[in-house]
Amino acid sequence: MLASKLQQTTAQNAQQKQVGTAAESVQASGRTAQSGVPVTVSKSVRSLGEGSKTTSDVDTAKVQAMREAIANGTFKVNAGAIADKLLTDASMFLGAARA
C-alpha cells in the first residue's frame, strides 16, 4: 500500500511539472509549449499578471505595527468586531447560496 501511494505521489508530481502554472503560461506567450502547440495570451491577460506584481493586498505598515504590538504584549483583540464580521460574511454567503 505504501509503495502504491509513493508511485501515485511521484506520478502526480511529474504531471504537475509538465502542466505548469497559469503564470508560467502567461510568461510563455509567444513561445511554443512542450507539446509543440503555439501558446498565445491576449494583452489584457498579460496586463493582469503585471498588475499583480506592482500592487499588494497587504498593508505592510499595518502588519509591522501588529507584529510590534504582539511582541510588546500590547496587542488587543476586538472580539466584537471579529464576531460582527464573521456574522456579516456568513449572512452574505448564505444569501448568495440561496439565490
TrEMBL record:
Highest taxon, organism lineage: Bacteria
UniProt-annotated stretches for the region Disordered: 1-59
Swiss-Prot/TrEMBL keywords: Bacterial flagellum biogenesis, Cell projection, Cilium, Flagellum, Repressor, Transcription, Transcription regulation
All copies of domain Anti-sigma-28 factor FlgM C-terminal, residue ranges: 40-87
Extent of Low complexity compositional bias: 7-18
A family per Pfam: FlgM
Record field: compositional bias (Polar residues): 24-45
GO biological process: bacterial-type flagellum organization; negative regulation of DNA-templated transcription
Role noted for this protein: Responsible for the coupling of flagellin expression to flagellar assembly by preventing expression of the flagellin genes when a component of the middle class of proteins is defective. It negatively regulates flagellar genes by inhibiting the activity of FliA by directly binding to FliA.
NCBIfam families per record: FlgM_jcvi (TIGR03824)
Family per similarity comment: Belongs to the FlgM family.
Protein name: Negative regulator of flagellin synthesis
Gene name in the database record: flgM
